[in-house]
Amino acid sequence: MDDRFVLGGVEFGSRLILGTGGASSLHVLEQALLAGGTELITLALRRIDPGLPAGLLDVLERCGVRLLPNTAGCYTAADAVRTAHLARDAFDTDWIKLEVIGDDRTLLPDAVELLRAAERLVDDGFTVLPYTTDDPVLARRLADLGCAAVMPAGAPIGSGLGISNPHHIALIREAVRCPVILDAGIGTASDAARAMELGCDAVLLASAVTRAADPVAMATAMRHAVIAGRLASQAGRIPVRRHALASTPADGLPTW
Amino acid sequence: MITVVVNDRPRPTRRGETVADLLATLDVPPRGVAVAVNGEVVRRTDWPAHRLLDGDRVEVLTAVQGG
Q: In the UniProt entry, which residues are flagged as the active site (chain A) (predicted)?
C-alpha cells in the first residue's frame, strides 16, 4: 500500500512525532525516542543555564531525527515570530511548531495572535506547523495562509484527556488539504489510535510518553497505536448498527 | 568599561566588545545557540561584527527539552 506521509515536502516513515519535554533524563529520552520510532521531534529555546544537563542535540543527532523547534511560552505574535527567527539561527531549520498561547490555565492558543504570527512566518519563508484549537474554521484559515500542516489540540497540553471533540477533528480533516496532526491531549495509546482513525495524518505527543511510569514501554505502545489507527482508517471499517448481524450463516442449521 | 545586561544580569564589559567576544566569556554550548540584542535577532554570521553598547540587553538562548 502506498501510504506516504509527506510534511513540508519531506517524506516520513513514521507518523508519530514526539516532544522532548518532561523526560526525567536524556538517557530515558533517547531510549523512548528510539522505541517510538519517531523521525521528527520538538524542542525549545531557553536561556543558557550551566546548571542544566548538556547534550540534548547530541542525543537527537544520534537518534537521527529532524528537529522541530517550538515557540512555547509565547503569548503574542511578535514574541512567537522573534522566537522562530532565533530558532532558525540556532538550529539551521526553517521548520517551526508555532504556539501562541492565550491562557495560562488551559494553554490553549490565542486564535488572533496565532493567525498574525502564521502569516508573518509563512511570508518569512518558514515551514509553519501551527498548534491550533479544534475549530475547523480556524484550521482552514491557517491552511489558506500557507501553513504546512494544522495541528489541532485534542485536549489541553499535558492533560491526558484524549480527544474532547472527535467530530471537530474529523471536520478539520475534511476542511483542509494539508496534513492534520493531532497535537496535545493524548493520554494513552487508544487516544493516538483514535486520532488516526478520525483521519489525522500524524500524532504529536510528549507528556503521555515522557511522564509515563515507563516511558520506553509507552513510546512502543504509541508507535503501534499510530500504525494501527492509520491502517484502520484506511481499511474501511464496518458501519455501526444498533442490533446484531450474525457472522455465522443461518443456512444449514440442523433441525432437531 | 560599559555594562550590558545578559539574560537579565548586568555584566561589566570592555568597550568595543562584540557578541562573539561576549559568548567566548560565557559557558555557552558548542552549538544550538541564538542571540538577540534589544529584542532583535543577531544572526550567527553577524556575531563577530556586532559591537555591544552600554545598556544593551542581550539574550543568549539554547536548546532545551520541550513541546
A: 97 (schiff-base intermediate with dxp)
